[in-house]
Design goal:
It contains one helix and 21 strands. The strands form five sheets. Strands 1-5-4-3-2 form a five-stranded antiparallel beta sheet, with no helix packed on it. It is mainly beta. Strand 8 and strand 9 form a beta hairpin.
């Protein structure tokens, strides 16, 4: 005869209870028509392709991807790349990439909608979490603004911060957001505003939990007032990315235009007193990269080499597409210097 002691019953509860919770979740989801990637009924997040088909392996010099952004994670020894479209690609050598993987969990209730176009996303680590920033464009209205998502793991799921990820008013036209911190570890978002001639780069501070804005945005850098010769035709500057050299000099990568051709440009602050984010910023007269290039950012590879990722128009099979390119850089002096294209 089996005697049910208190100790036995307690052990039985511990073994069975998790399965009961899983069963209840499955029954609840079945009653609501199944679990979607944005619903409360989702039992487990899967790092998977958006169409559930096997991931593809693509050589980087044949990929079509604008505004590439790369992070190297030493703990996994893997490179993670995202770009226009919002999907993630992974690589162990920067030469071949596997994907695309879906990492965002977007709700239909947001102002941008689940089917919005995702442009110029970036992923940054901050306060023990990962911050995903992107431009989102409503396909119905064409309105574009910035949204912020956070996750505990680099592979997601990234969910909107409070207020649907809006550090900005949903009516504010904004694009190409990037993230930076100051010496006090305060977080900022820099983004493009194309409403003014020549375009401007605005900056706004947000709270430590990245859920609220602090104050109003202000103009950090103006395309109309800078010294870059190719920006004088009135085409708006965009795609900012902030960096600091080994000597402590602050620099700003951005995309400018020489007629219809885009270029990667760079500016440096001349402010020796006060907060360096306030500028003033002065652009170098000549761009870093010409030839319909843009969307530049920096990352460090496995051996500590600084690399600039950007897209560049490339003719493949008779079609001109934007292909990710990687260039080794040197920042040990006051200004960023090119070494040459990355040697795989």
């Amino acid at each position: 005869m089996l005697i049910f002691t208190n100790k036995y019953v307690l052990g039985l509860k511990k073994r069975i209870f998790p399965y009961l919770l899983l069963l209840l979740a499955m029954v609840s989801c079945a009653g609501q028509g199944g679990g979607g990637t944005d619903g409360a009924c989702e039992v487990e997040w899967k790092f998977a392709t958006p169409d559930s088909l096997p991931a593809r392996v693509v050589a980087v010099d044949t990929m079509e991807l604008a505004n590439p952004f790369v992070r190297y994670e030493r703990k996994s020894n893997i490179y993670y790349m995202i770009g226009d479209g919002g999907y993630m690609w992974t690589s162990s050598d920067l030469r071949t990439w596997t994907g695309p993987y879906n990492v965002l969990r977007v709700s239909d209730d947001s102002w941008y909608g689940k089917d919005s176009e995702i442009l110029a996303p970036e992923i940054h680590a901050h306060n023990g979490r990962y911050c995903y920033m992107a431009s989102l464009q409503d396909k119905t209205s064409g309105h574009i603004s910035c949204a912020v998502f956070t996750a505990d793991e680099i592979t997601g799921p990234y969910i909107p911060v409070a207020g649907e990820g809006m550090l900005l008013d949903s009516l504010e036209v904004a694009g190409h957001p990037t993230f930076c911190t100051d010496e006090m570890d305060a977080g900022y978002m820099i983004y493009s505003d194309s409403n003014e001639p020549g375009g401007v780069l605005r900056i706004i501070r947000f709270t430590k939990d990245m859920e609220k804005r602090m104050g109003e945005s202000y103009v950090m850098f103006s395309g109309a007032d800078n010294a870059l010769d190719v920006a004088k035709d009135g085409r708006p500057i965009e795609a900012p990315y902030l960096f600091v050299t080994d000597t402590g000099a602050a620099g700003l990568l951005f995309t400018a235009y020489d007629g219809e051709e885009s270029v990667v440009a760079v500016a440096y602050t001349t402010n020796e007193l006060g907060h360096w984010l306030n500028g003033p910023w002065v652009a170098e007269p000549q761009p870093l990269v010409k030839g319909n290039a843009g969307g530049a950012s920096l990352f460090t590879d496995y051996d500590g080499t600084l690399v600039m990722a950007f897209h560049k128009d490339t003719l493949i099979n008779g079609k001109n597409i934007k292909v990710p390119r990687f260039m080794k850089m040197d920042r040990q002096f006051e200004k960023l210097e090119k070494i040459g294209y990355y040697n795989f």
